[in-house]
Amino acid sequence: MATITTTATLSFHSQNPIKTLPSFSLSNIPFSISKTNFTSFTNLSLSIPASKSNNASSPLNRYSRFSCNCISTATPNTNYEFSDSSSEVELRLSLVGLDIQSSRDIFVDADGTSLVVQVQHSGSHITLIETNKMFEKIKPAETIWFIDDDQLVINMKKQDPDLKWPDIVESWESLTAGSMQLLKGASIFLVGDSTEINQKVARELAVGLGYTLLDTQELLETFAKQTIDSWVLAEGSDSVAEAECAILESLSSHVRAVVSTLGGKQGAAGKAYKWQHLYAGFTVWLSQTEALDEDSAKEEARKNVKDRSVAYSNADVVVKLQGWDSDHAKSVAQASLSALKQLILSDKKLPGKKSLYIRLGCRGDWPNIKPPGWDPSNEAESIS
Question: Which of 77, 184, 244, 255 sits 20 to 30 Å CA-CA off 103?
Answer without folding.
Answer: 77
